[in-house]
C-alpha cells in the first residue's frame, strides 16, 4: 500500500503514513519507500521526504535499518522509572527512595491551609519564593535570576524546551541519560544529540561536537547523574563553562534532582554571563515522588516565557502544596530525616559495592540513589540469568542514546532497601550470572 502515501509537505506525508497505519493498510514490519523514490513519486524535494521520515522516527513509528530501508514498528513506550508491574521477581531497578525515610507531612498539613487562593493572585507563594532564592543562590553563578515553581522537574524541562525550541530542534543529552529526559525530548519532537559521560561528568569533546551539530538546548545533571551517579569535577565544569561562553544563547538546563541528599559540592555549567539558563531542584527524592514540586531558577527572559505557561488558576502549582513543601523544608525534624536518608543511601550503596568487589566485580559508589555496575558481559544476558534467580534488574540499554554503541555492559541497581542477607544473595547471584 506504499503507493497510497500522499502529501506535498513533511507534515502531510507524516499524516498520510499515520492514517494508513491506523486503517491497517500499513502494519509493523512493512517497509516505506526509499526517500528518493517517494520524493520522485510525490513530486517533492528529497529534503521534504527526509524531514517526514525523521518526524516518524522521532514519534517512534518507524526505525531506520540503513540500506535495508525504513520499517514501521510498534509504538513502544519509553522505559519509565518505578516498580515493574505484574512481576513476581524481586525488583532492584526501581529508582525509588525509601518510603521510611520520607518525612511525614501530617504534622505540618494542618498549619498550611490558611485562606483560599483565588484567580488572579500570584502563582508563587511569596515565602517559598524567598526561601528558594536563598537555597539556589550560593550554587548559581548568575546573579540576575528569577524563581518559578513547577509541578516537578520533568514538568519544568518540558515547559522550558517548549518555550525555547521548535519541533526538530537539537537538544544535547547526557549518554547514558535519565529516562524522563529521553521521554520528554522524544515526545516533544526534538532531536537528541548524545554527549558521552565519563567519571568527571559530561565530556568537553562531546559537548563541543553537540554544539557544532547545532544544539539549541543542553540538559545536564551536574551531580549524582542518573544513571551513573557521577558529578562534574571542578576542572571539567570550568572547561565546559569556557566552551559555553562562546554560545551564550544556548539554553542550559541543570537538573539537580539529588540536591539535599548529595554528598558532593555543586559544579555548574552556567557561567556568570550566560544568557539562557535554568537550574532545577525538585523535592521528589527527599519529600517523595507524590510531592510534585520543583524550583526553577532562570534568567529573566526565560522566566517571563515560563510565566506565560503558568496561568493563575489553571496551570499553577497548588499553593497548599507550595506551603506544605516550605513547611517541611524548614522543619527541623523533616530536615533531620532528609540528612538521615542521604547518609543511608550512601552507606548502603557503598556496602553493596564492597560486596561486589569481594566477588571480583569492579564496582564503586559515587553518589545518588542507585549503583551503576559494569559487567563483564552484555547486561541483557546477565539480566536473563538473574531473572532465573528471582531478580529483576534494569540494564543500561534503556539509558543509552547512541544506537551504534552496541549492547550495554552496565546495570543500574537500586539496592538501598535490601537487608544484609538479601544484599549478600544478590551480589552472589550477580557473580554467578556473569560467570
From TrEMBL:
| Domain of life from the UniProt record | Bacteria
HTH gntR-type domain sequence ranges: 7-75
Q: Which InterPro entries match?
A: Aminotransferase_I/II_large (IPR004839), HTH_trans_reg/aminotransferase (IPR051446), PyrdxlP-dep_Trfase (IPR015424), PyrdxlP-dep_Trfase_major (IPR015421), Tscrpt_reg_HTH_GntR (IPR000524), WH-like_DNA-bd_sf (IPR036388), WH_DNA-bd_sf (IPR036390)
Instruction: Say if the entry is tagged with keyword Transcription regulation.
Output: yes
Supply the alphabetized keyword list: DNA-binding, Pyridoxal phosphate, Transcription, Transcription regulation
**The UniProt record lists the keyword Plastid:** no
Mention one GO molecular function: DNA-binding transcription factor activity
PANTHER family recorded: HTH-TYPE TRANSCRIPTIONAL REGULATORY PROTEIN GABR
Q: Which family does it belong to?
A: In the C-terminal section; belongs to the class-I pyridoxal-phosphate-dependent aminotransferase family.
Give the protein name, as stated in the record. Answer: Transcriptional regulator PtsJ
